[in-house]
Amino acid sequence: MKINIKRNPAKLSLITSMNKIFPILTFLLICIINGLMPSCTKEEATGTDKELLNLAQATTGFTWYKKSNILLAKSNASGHSEAFLKTRFNAVAAAKLDAGGKLVDGTSFPDGSLIVKELYKNESTLNRYAILYKKAGHPDADAKGWVWGYVNADGSVAAAASQKGAGCAGCHSQSGNIDYILMKKFFP
């Protein structure tokens, strides 16, 4: 006795699609479980990121770029999503500014320099700190001695200092930078 089985093309197509999708979904689930994919929860700053956040939140003893704390509209070349910014320099870094508060061409900042760029969503909402702290020999310092911080105003980490500026250094290395700083190029 011969059994005649008819194949349903729609069912076969669905099974073929599922066979292709299932390994991808399985891989993504494993990555999420093992922490290889970003999660929806915010990572609170700890270690170096917390140290940088504390340094950025302390506002005394700083000099504003061009000696003005007026918000600047971001430049068209900015990789930051925020619309406005203000940049300040601690006393060590400010020693490399001219009398008008602008960077001196060819400057190389000494160890202990702290530069904080405050990034604002709008004219009144601080969203994030972009921080450069020159501390050669620090485990999170890049080859030039800079420790990069990218911390949200709420204390969560936008990009960990342990990444050593991997997502920032490309833009900050463009022509016209002064030891990674682009303020003079875009705000002369």
Concise description?
26% of the residues lie in helices and 20% in strands. With 188 residues, it is an alpha+beta fold.
Fold and architecture overview:
The chain is of the alpha+beta class and 188 residues long. It has a single domain, classed as 3-Layer(bba) Sandwich (Chalcone isomerase), CATH 3.50.70. It contains five helices and seven strands. Strands 1, 2, 3, 4, 5, 6 and 7 form a seven-stranded antiparallel beta sheet that branches. The protein is elongated, with a radius of gyration of 24 Å. About 5% of the residues have low confidence.
| Distance between the first and last residues' Cα | 90 Å
Q: Give the SSE string.
A: HHEEEHEEEEHH
Major β-sheet annotation: 7 strands, antiparallel
Structural class: alpha+beta
Number of helices, counting only DSSP H or I runs of 4 residues or more: 5
Arithmetic mean pLDDT: 86
